Amino acid sequence: MLCAMNFCVLGIESSCDETGVAVYARQGGLLAESLYSQVDLHATYGGVVPELAARDHARRLPALVAQTLDAAGIAPGALDAVAYTAGPGLAGALLAGAACAAGLATAWDKPLLAVHHMEAHLLAPLMEGQGADFPFVALLVSGGHTLLVHARALGDYQILGQSLDDAVGEAFDKSASLLGLPYPGGAALAALAAQAPAPLPGVKLPRPMTRQRSLDFSFSGLKTAFALALREQDAQDPEVRAGLARAFEEAVVDTLERKCLWALQAAGCTRLLIGGGVAANRRLQQRLAAAVQARGGSLHCPPLRLCTDNGAMIAHLAALRGPALAVAADAAPVHARWSLEALRPATPSPETPARTAPP
Ligand code: KG4
Ligand code: ZN
Predict the structure, then answer these.
(1) What is the pLDDT of residues 89-109, one digit of tens each?
(2) Ligand 1 pocket residues where CB is under 6 Å
(3) Model pTM?
């Protein structure tokens, strides 16, 4: 009866191309976790195909739920709630997770909790004591998001900047694809860049939206500039390829570094947290750590498994915020677009009413 007084949650993540299920208890921590990546399914298309993602989540979830409960040694009756990612994300993929969670909550007679995917990312590092104390600034960078957030307190977030077009991971993946690297090619492009001592001489790539100290991002122009630069070079020469990859990576890192420093200044914070798959980029980590430390601040850079999409962060956030996230199981809302700013600050009372749906 580990769960009885402990707020123990089964969490489901299905916002993009990872199917994640986990059981997390306030006092026991992460009891079990299962993660299935659809990356092979989408690789031939060079990006996530929403319809295929939704179908695959629906296909995998029942077995993943059974396997995770089994690994946790938890009977459904011992759970205090079922949680799911309600957004933002791909609508069909979110619906697959919501339908599964709502069905389980109804069958097991448990509350249903709706989790904001980006809030789960922000607080995931707390699972292993690797989070930043409030207030802090977070840079969330993945294949689907590019976001600068001022996290003032639990549930109290201000968006400082976001991408107006491609996410930064998407720009990495598309540029990697131009170099003939398989999807998702961000890590492979970074590995190629690491082989070059410096960016290829003569290649000038833009640092988008850095002239006016804007905290928003735009990476589609950089990707186009990279395509043009590649066309003018001998794309078969290994040194040229590495130098080009390095030039691309430097342009991204320069841009992200400048905006993180401005964001810290604007928010009056010293702590910077980075998350999302692109946070695995070594050059980005090194440059941010040096820049932030030189200004007396600190960089919180959790291990990759806490940065990328997973069910553990959903169950964790639901256990942390508890009944404040409750929604009706016969509604099980999903929101493809959902701003972090629509969330409510946490209140100490467990009687906090369910939050309203975003516009
Ligand atoms: O968070 P994540 O696993 O999944 C979502 O996009 O939701 O992030 C994956 C993204 C991909 O675009 C991938 O190419 C990129 O993170 N990525 C990297 C690196 N490792 C993964 N980008 C740059 N450098 C890396 N080392
Ligand atoms: Zn994510």
Answers:
(1) 999 999 999 999 999 999 999
(2) 16, 142-144, 169, 172-173, 184, 186-187, 190, 276-278, 280-281, 308-309
(3) 0.92
